[in-house]
Give the backbone structure.
Amino acid sequence: MVGILLAAGCAPLAPTRTTSASCFDWSTMSDQQRIDVATAIVDANGLLERVRVAQHEGPGTPRAVILREVVESVSKNCDVMHQPNLDVEDLTRRLYG
């Protein structure tokens, strides 16, 4: 016998936060720190494939290339938006989520 559990009226869980970095924090990070933060955000939110598609990269594009594009997009958006308190993880989700 197979049982089915239905959870009616439940709100989806909020994504787990992987970082509390702001755009100001991002601006002070080294390239490697930015890659590390971007990797953590992409992995925690399952965004790798969405980034690949959004960046018009083909299947089989190396992970490092895709993560570098996240770093570049976050950097550009932080610069353009002029909001030093903007949360980098929220920004990344808005770009690719």
